[in-house]
Amino acid sequence: MTSKEEIISNIKFNYTKVRNEIIEKAQREYRNPGEITLIAVSKTFSTEILEYALESGIRIFGENYAQEVRDKIAFFEDKPVKPHWHFIGHLQTNKVKYLIPYIKLIHTVDSFELASEINKRAEQYNLIQNILIQVNTSSEETKYGILPEDAINLSQSVLSLHNLNLIGLMTIGTFSTDESVIREEFSMLRNLRYEVNNKLGIEKLTELSMGMSNDYLIAIEEGSTILRVGTAIFGERNYSKT
To answer: The domain containing residue 65 runs over which residues?
Structure first.
């Protein structure tokens, strides 16, 4: 059985390695590393592992399942150090109630119906909820997200919801060994952000959430501002689960 000290050491080593790679890659691309947010994807890991991650210096966590993050939020409610939560999984309208007002950024808004429900919940708490629109840049039927050609219309519609703050776009790259395929999808999202901003007439969208453990260095080259990295930080999901 792996000891607490070993787990913390492994997580800290991996996290530091990823951070250093981000800094080096950003600098080579003439980018400011401080403008790139690293999210530790903690889905399915126990609250115990998250406590170890906090001890390792990690503060920003990404969760995929609404009920799971609800339970984790409750666990950390009375703790002296609390995670900053991002929601990065597919979200159903009836699960929004579990997220508001605890989630800093919801990455996966893919319909006006979902946006409206988030807006309604945010209004109840008198807060402005930050969101991203998820775009299916690969056209894979198994992936969620709107089609690229629908991004402008949904962005314009979301701007009418006063308790939402749309700050960017998100995509999940194809899991492929072909770098050109991944790069094309990330480039598409970057160009789409430009198109949406141009249509809106304002630089409203500043964030691009793209890049995971297998492709985050490519994502940096293509302009990502938010990286969602799990395995490269936590290792394979073989620790105890919630």
So the answer is: 4-22+34-234
